Structure formats: structure tokens, C-alpha cells
Amino acid sequence: MADLRIPSVQHLARNWRGDPNVIARALVQLARNPPQFNYKPLYLATRDMLLLNAPYDEVFRGIQKLPRESVRQNLLEVLPLIRDHFSNVSPRFYQSVDRRYYPVGRGLMIPFDPPMIYGVGGQLYFPWFSFWRQNPLAGERLSLFVTLVDEILMQDPDLEDARFEILDFSCPGPKQPRELHVIDARDIPRVDMRRKIEMLECFAEGYFRALEKLAEPSPRSSPDYRPDNPPDPDQPGLFD
Length: 240
Description:
Helices cover 41% and strands 15% of the residues. By secondary structure, the chain is α+β, with helices and mostly antiparallel strands.
């Protein structure tokens, strides 16, 4: 049985659809064909540049030492954009944030792992990094994500006044290089309470249907088995 771990808040929003069966199929496919790397080295690189004032060339060389060329290339596409965004930022403090959980329904608790917070000029900033190369969160799924994050932040007196920004490192078009788009979360419409509950109930139903499907005998045992879609090496892991 493939391992279906609980997705993050961001991946809940990305995999949300209006039909729990569609959600279940997407989660089953991801469990059976998981991506092979994550973007954690970029969080560490950001910390080193912001907190430790590590020279960019030194951080660059550190990522160049990673063993897989495809991983190195992917990370080095994003690193200059991170450098440019934070080049004029001199934070008064930088702090990691502990994991939180958001209740979705039927006992399903979704993890939320903020990468960092930092303060500049009396303003607390909460940046969220979105590393998807294509099809970043948009429309109602983006609204759902921002709504859930808002609620999590408001539950913490230390975070409720933070300025929430989404750093979107996607490509503007096919075969085009990545660009950084900074999205002020204040500009994103929220979903209302009733719609939010409907969306979360739909996702929870899809998640548990995926578990049931994965508990069935694996199609890998068939000689005719082929994955519906091979994993995309350019996408971050479902749970990162």
C-alpha cells in the first residue's frame, strides 16, 4: 500500500476540487508517484542570507554541492530571485515558527509549517514561498489557502499582526524562466464561512476515499500497470 501522508494547508488548497472523487484520484496518484525532492535547501539559504549575512556566492556554492544535477538546477533557478527580493532587507529579528494544525473535519488535522517570520521597522512579516513552476494557486483555491492561513495566524497573538505575503516563483509561460511575483494577501478575497466548510468537507471526504482506494490490492501487481502520470520532478513534494 502506498503511503498517503496528510497534505499541508497549501497542498490541500492546490488539490481541492468540487468533487471528492476527483480529489481522491489526485491524492492516490500522488501517493503512488511521489515527487523525488523538496525545496528545503532554499529555506536554509534564505535563513543564512537574512540571519547570518552569508555571502550569496557562498550559499550558491553550497547548493552546487548537492548530488543530483536536476535538483541543483531547479534550486539555482530560484535562488537569485530570493537574493534579489531580500537584498535590501535588514531584519531586526528572524525567527522560525513551530508547526500548527488546522482541523478540516472527520478528525483530519492538516499541518501548517510556516517557513519563517522576520521584523523590519516595527512591522512583522510572514512570507509564504510557493515554488510551483506552473499552475500556482489562483482563484478560489488561492482564496481558500489565504483564508485558512489567516485563521491560523489570528489564533496566535504573536502572529496576528504579521503582514502575510506570498512569494510566487512560477514561470509566466511554457519554457519561460521563473519570475518572482509578490502577492499581498490583503488583496486576495476570502471565502465565507459557509463556503469554507463546504470546501473542507469535500476535501476530507476525498482524502478518506483515497485511503480506502490505497487499501485495495495495488495495481502495481498487474503486468499491465502503468502510472496515470509520471511524477513531475519540477514540483515540490506534496507535504513540503
